[in-house]
Amino acid sequence: MFVINCPYCGERDQQEFKAGGEAHIERPKQPTELSDDEWAEYLFMRKNIKGVQYERWNHAHGCRKWFNMVRDTSNDEIKAIYKMGEKPPSI
Amino acid sequence: MGNKYSIFSLIKNALSYHENWQRAWKDPTPKKEYDAVIVGGGGHGLATAYYLAKKHNMKNIAVVEKGWIGGGNTGRNTTIIRSNYLWDASARLYDHALKIWEGLSQELNYNVMFSQRGVMNLAHNLQDVRDLKRRTHANRLNGIDAVYLSTEEVKKFCPIINTSQDIRYPVLGGTLQRRAGTARHDAVAWGYARGADEMGVDIIQNCEVKGIKRNGDTVEGLETTKGFIKTKKIGVVAAGHSSVIANMAGIRLPLESKPLQALVSEPVKPIIDTVVMSNAVHAYVSQSDKGELVIGAGTDDYVSYAQKGSHQIVEGTLNAILELYPIFSRMRMLRQWGGIVDICPDASPILSKTSIKGLYFNCGWGTGGFKATPGSGDLFAHTIANDEPHKLNAAFNLNRFVSGDLVDEHGAAAVAH
Q1: Smallest CA–CA separation between A54 and chain B, in Å?
Q2: Distance from the A87 Cα atom to the nearest Cα atom in chain B, whole angstroms
Q3: Which residues in chain B have their CB less than 8 angstroms from residue A76's CB?
Q4: Chain A closest-CA separation from residue B214 CA (Å)
Q5: CB neighbourhood size of B201 (10 A)
Q6: Facing residues of B124 across strands?
Q7: How many CA within 13 A on the CB side of residue B206?
Q8: A47 inside 8 A of chain B by CB
Q9: Residue B412 binned pLDDT confidence (cut-offs 50, 70, 90)
């Protein structure tokens, strides 16, 4: 369990948040032209990194806004938090 | 068998104060080359090696394990075994395993303490009732024993359950698979390790894989902390760390690794002689032979390899347990732990070849792999030895995420494990 610093509400208990999985997976620009392999890649394949990972979180029981987080999945340490649309920090 | 366990060996060793028991498996240094190497010395990996040696006559093989055998999810699960899955492919897969469980102690000459005490799944709302009835019918069509129980029958089968209709999630009924039950998880790893070792398999502990060497689309060997091991066939059975190994080989998997928690209470006298699971409130409980209540919680929703989970998950599970079993209200919990489970988008496993020749993955068992251990090992050994899947695991290929032919067991088959 950890404390998350929501960019809109400040520090709150992790219990208020919902994890939204890997960040920066771009929706295909031309969905009709995608092959089955490309669809599988977009829909299902994940980096699932052991180490520093970029992911999305939602303050579900708070402001309900989405934001991004950089977190070390090997020890759950949060490295950085940034808003949707902002450039991801390099860690 | 050189060192067969029996009443006579027990008496013989008792006379020497049990100081002369032979080692159950050796501690070899890796050879330069093997015909096949299994990555991961948990139950599934050791079972794979066992069946490769036994049924496919591949004796020049090794299991490499970064820690100690059975120290990962094999030693962290809640030991539940059942096969009452909804879809045909899953029902056949898990029932194949259950049939092997029924004779496993005799086959391995090692008591895995398989106990067919029954697994009961509870329904708490009308949709649960419909789903469980549908699953009962599906199970029976697949030749799997399943019965639907009314609230009164649930109470009769497990009298300590609170079946009052006034609780937040009242018990409206349930299903029962009598052939289901539990087994001793450590013994499964140890029994397979001993059996495989006896047939000449090298079990190499404290040996972490650092890289997979490829020549184009063919594997050539493994870089490990104990040096390079040459091999043409690599079977990866690394559970939560499957994506880490896949990354070394340069392939992508549809997995997310998440913490799953369990806890046990202080030991008490026998109070619950079956396994009771509830999906809706996410709580399941059984009692170990030591007398501890074994309680399984849910997964956290974020990716983590830290082998710990969030407190509120455990709290939620215990709230549900206390509502269903008020008699446990003054029990004290002894230990709590987390394991890292690799979850597939369709909550079904992957037992498959990959785009790289000689590289096979057995992963994605998510929250319920223990029950499948013998079947998984058997079918994965078949897949590695023949370079083709067995008909029972053909549906569980990696390509289903491209073709769309998913085996969607999420929520469909009492998927809490």
Answers
A1: 11
A2: 22
A3: 304, 306, 308
A4: 20
A5: 29
A6: none
A7: 3
A8: yes
A9: low
CA distance B186 to B112: 8
d(CA B166, CA B231): 62
**Chain-wide mean pLDDT for chain B?**
95
Q: How far apart are CA B30 and CA B37, in angstroms?
A: 11
Q: Give B222-232 pLDDT, tens digit per residue.
A: 999 999 999 99
pLDDT digits (tens, 9 = 90+) for B231-262: 999 999 999 999 999 999 999 999 999 999 99
CB pairs under 8 A between A and B: 70
Nearest to B202 by CA among B1, B26, B413, B364: B26
Residue B256 has its nearest CB partner, among A48, A71, A74, at: A48
- Residue B218 has phi, psi (to 5 degrees) of -125, 140
Residue B358 is encoded by which pair of tokens? 């000689």
pLDDT(B157) > 70: yes
Q: Which of B247, B253, B304 to mutate to test the interface with A (most CBs of A within 10 A)?
A: B304
Please tell me the predicted confidence (pLDDT) of residue A1: 65
Tokens representing B69? 């055998």
- Tell me which CATH homologous superfamily contains domain A3-83: Folate-binding superfamily (3.30.2270.10)
Facing residue for A36 by CB, picked from B241, B255, B402 = B402
Inter-chain contact B301–A41, Cβ cutoff 8 Å?
Answer: no
Q: Which chain B residue has the Cα nearest residue A20?
A: B302
Reported as half-sphere exposure (CB side, CA atoms, 13 A), residue B58 has a value of 23
**Facing residue for A74 by CB, picked from B256, B306, B401:** B306
* Domain extents in chain A: 3-83
- Asked if the model's pLDDT at residue B193 lies above 70, the reply is yes
pLDDT of residue B371 exceeding 70, the answer is yes
CB spacing of A55 vs B255 below 8 angstroms: no
Number of residues that this document lists for chain B: 417
Residue of A44, A47, A49, A61 to mutate, testing the B interface (most B Cβ within 10 Å of its Cβ): A44
- Report ipTM for this prediction: 0.95
Closest-CA residue to B97 (of B113, B114, B109, B110): B114
- What proportion of chain B, given as a percentage, has pLDDT over 90? 93
Is the pLDDT score of B1 beyond 80?
Answer: no
What is the share, in percent, of chain B residues with pLDDT greater than 70?
A: 98
Identify the pLDDT of residue B410: 74
Contact B407, B400 (CB under 8 A): yes
For A21-48, what is each residue's pLDDT tens digit? 999 999 999 999 999 999 999 999 999 9
Query: What is the Cα A47 distance to its own chain's centre?
Result: 12
Does the structure show a pLDDT above 50 at B219? yes
Query: What one-letter code names the amino acid at B288?
Result: S
The Cα of B336 is separated from the nearest Cα of chain A by a number of Å equal to 14
| Edge-to-edge strand ranges of the sheet holding B275-278 | B147-149, B173-177, B119-123, B275-278, B283-287, B293-299, B256-265, B333-343
